[in-house]
Structure formats: C-alpha cells, structure tokens
Specification:
Elements lengths: L7 H15 L3 E12 L5 E6 L4 E6 L1 H4 L11 E11 L4 E11 L2 H17 L18 E5 L4 H13 L5 E5 L7 H15 L4 E6 L13 H9 L4 E5 L7 H5 L2 E2 L3 H8 L1 H38 L3 H44 L3 H18 L1 H6 L4 E3 L17 E5 L4 E5 L7
Parallel strand pairs: 3-5, 6-7, 6-8, 8-9, 9-10
Antiparallel strand pairs: 1-2, 1-4, 2-3, 4-5, 11-12, 12-13
Helix pairs in contact: 4-8, 5-6
Length: 418
C-alpha cells in the first residue's frame, strides 16, 4: 500500500525500482551526442535517433573496456540498464558496454557460421595437421605493408635466421580481402614451395578483421595441404580463420615464434651441447696436460741418468768400503779380545810342572807297586778282599799273595793274634 502523499525522493526511488525490475539488460542503438568525460573517469552522453533521445552514464570501471575512442556523432550500440537518477528525476541508461553500430549483426553472423562449420567438423582437432618441427621454408600470407609482416620477419630473423620465408601478398581488410586471402592460400598450396604457412594480420575492430571470418577463407585453410598457423589480431580476437587453422597464435609475433620453435630450441640445445663439449674437451686436455707434466717429470736425459748412476755407484762403493773397514775393525777388536782372554786363561806351565812333580811323587809313594818293590805283598781272601787283620782269617783258608813280581797261594795253618 502506498501512502496518500509521497515525497519527491520516495517517488523517484519507487520509480527507479520499478524500472530496474521490469527492464532487463538490453541493447539500445543510437547516435552519441553531448559527450562529457568527467575528471572522475566517468562518461556522460546522450543517445538519440530521429525521434527521441535518452541520457546515458558509463562509469569509469566500464569505460576502460572500450577499445576505441568514443566521439560525438558515432553510431553505437549500448548494453545498458534502464534506471532513474533520483537526485534529478532523470530517466537514464547505465551503460555496461559499448560497441559500434552493426557489430551485433556481424557477431550474430560470426556465431551462425561458426556453428555451421563446427557441425561439419571443419574445426575438429582430428583433422588438424601436425606442424613440422624443422620447417625448411615458411610462407607468410599477409599485406606487404602490414606491421604484422615486419613483426613476423623480425621474429624469424631473431630466432631462426637461416629459415627462408616467402611472402604471398594479399589484402587483409575490405570487401575484396577475403577472396584474395583464399586465393593466396591456394597459390601457396599449388606452388608447394613451403612446408608451413603463416596467415597473419595485426589487431583491429570486428569490422577490420571480418575478412578472416568469411567462409571462403575457412574452407581454403581446411583444403590447404600445407599446415597453417593463424595469427590474426590481438590475443582476445578469435576469428573463423583461427578456428579452421591447424594452430592458432595469439598474435603475428606468436605465430612466428611457434613456427620457429623447433629451430630455436635446437639452437639452444646445440649451444648447450657445444658448451658441454667444450667443457669436456677442456677437461680432457687438462687431464692430458697433467699426464704429460707427470711423464715429463719422470723423463730424464741419458747424461743425467748416467750421472745419477755414477753418483749412486760412488755412494755404494763408499758404503762398501766403509762396511769393509768396519768389518775389519770389528774382527781386529774381536781378535784382540780373544788374545786378552787367552792370555788370562793360559796356565803357568812352570808352576804346573812343579805341582805335577809333587803329585807324581805323592802317587809314587802311594803306589802299592812301589811298596811291593820294597818287599811287601798284598794278601787277598778267597772273596778278593784285602786281608788287613788276622780276624779275617780262618785256619785252612787259602790266600792269594801278590808280590812285586809274581803271585803265590798259601794256606793258613795257624793264626797268631797280636
């Protein structure tokens, strides 16, 4: 229920709510007039046609997405939200995005062609050809005056200077461009002098790039026996030619980088291998040089070797002479020691002779034979014992008598005690 009386602010607020609720985001076409660019970055302008006009506001966060310079008098299509500026009660459009008039129809044509060709399988991955890693010659399909050609040639010269390129000139914009592009592709295929084609063009609006959205170009790319890289526009631009090509590149420079990737990587690998080979050769040479130094130190001139041998012989002779002298001295010392010991151990012969004479005299005196020569006799019992006492005798006992000369037997006839 609405109150009986509304304030102006309440009325405007309710009107804004109704407008924003009942009108979805929509496209509105008209001519730009009264364009004002505020210091805040917001744009304010009027969209008009022959019968009416409407105020528009486009805030800074949205204006930055417009890729071209908005000017009065331009025919545009604005995607906007219908609303009301409450402070002034002005009916207006809050613009979300802008495009030049007619782009909507072009984009719809793009989508219809894309859908139809995709249904035919023209964009299918399985029909796309593999790019040669090491192309021998590259064909470039573009305008000779295009900046894209310069970018491609500079990139190829930097990354693969040995790789030759052939330019197949064509228009890249305008009503006749699509036919010329298709004809250039067919010419490159017929000549068969390249093993990789680059279809390139710099950035631009949808209208500028429209030649690359024509069916004749897509079918020429699909029928070409040579692999095709398409580098059309900027990274955000996607054309039918990009989809039909065997590889899409974000920019013409990127297309040249893809085409030369194999040679560029091989150059890097070759440089690394060359560096590794130089390092290995240097290490081998250093080892060999070290070996030569070692052998050089071991290598001796014959004269020097003879001198060393002579010095060694002299040294050995000196050692031999010293050893002989030491041996002789040792033997002389041993002989002297033995003489001294012999001198100490040799008996006094005269003293011995005297002692021997005394011992001989003693033996002579104690010799029984000497006693026997003086008239004594040795008496032995039958058992061989010497008879020293009459108590050893019995009458009738046979006794053996030994004289200084000869023996005799006797019988005890009588025992005479002392």
């Amino acid at each position: 229920m609405l109150p009986e009386i509304l304030s102006v602010a309440e009325l405007n607020r309710l009107a804004r709510a109704v407008l924003e609720r009942d009108f979805p985001l929509l496209w509105v076409a008209g001519e730009v007039s009264n364009l004002t660019r505020a210091p805040s970055g917001h744009w304010y302008f009027t969209l008009k046609d022959a019968d009416a006009q409407v105020r528009c506001a486009m805030f800074r966060s949205r204006t930055q997405s417009v890729p071209w310079q908005l000017e009065n008098g331009q025919q545009v299509e604005a995607r906007a939200l219908v609303t009301l500026y409450e402070a002034r009660g002005d009916f207006q459009l809050n613009v979300e995005s802008l495009r030049r008039a007619g782009l909507g129809r072009l984009y719809e044509s793009f989508l219809r062609l894309k859908e139809r060709l995709a249904a035919e399988g023209l964009f299918a991955e399985e029909r796309k050809r593999a790019l040669p890693r090491f192309p021998h010659r590259i064909g470039i399909i573009t305008s000779p005056r295009a900046a894209a050609l310069r970018d491609v040639l500079v990139t190829l010269a930097r990354r693969a200077p040995q790789l030759p390129a052939i330019v197949y000139p064509t228009l890249v914009q305008g009503a006749e461009a699509a036919g010329q592009i298709a004809a250039a592709i067919e010419t490159a295929a017929a000549r068969s002098e390249c093993d990789l084609l680059l279809l390139v063009r710099g950035g631009g609006s949808l209208e500028d790039l429209w030649s690359f959205n024509e069916e004749i170009v897509a079918r020429a790319i699909a029928a070409c026996p040579i692999p095709v890289i398409a580098g059309v526009g900027h990274e955000t631009d996607v054309t039918i030619a990009d989809l039909a090509a065997d590889r899409r590149a974000a920019t013409p420079t990127a297309a040249a980088e893809i085409a030369s990737a194999g040679w560029f990587e091989a150059a890097g690998e070759t440089a690394q291998l060359a560096m590794a080979l130089r390092a290995a050769m240097r290490a081998q040479l250093e080892r060999r040089m070290q070996r030569v130094d070692l052998l050089a130190r071991q290598l001796v001139h014959p004269a020097e070797r003879l001198e060393r041998s002579r010095q060694r012989l002299d040294h050995l002779a000196s050692r031999l002479a010293n050893a002989g002298e030491r041996f002789s001295a040792k033997r002389r010392q041993q002989l002297a020691d033995m003489r001294l010991r012999l001198a100490h151990a040799r008996p006094n012969l005269e003293l011995h002779r005297t002692r021997l004479a005394r011992l001989a005299a003693s033996l002579t005196a104690l010799n029984p034979q000497a006693a026997l020569t003086r008239g004594y006799a040795l008496v032995r019992a039958p058992n061989g014992e010497l008879v020293r006492s009459h108590r050893q005798l019995v009458e009738g006992m046979a006794l053996d008598l030994r004289f200084a000369e000869g023996n005799a037997e006797a019988l005890v006839s009588k025992i005479i005690p002392d």
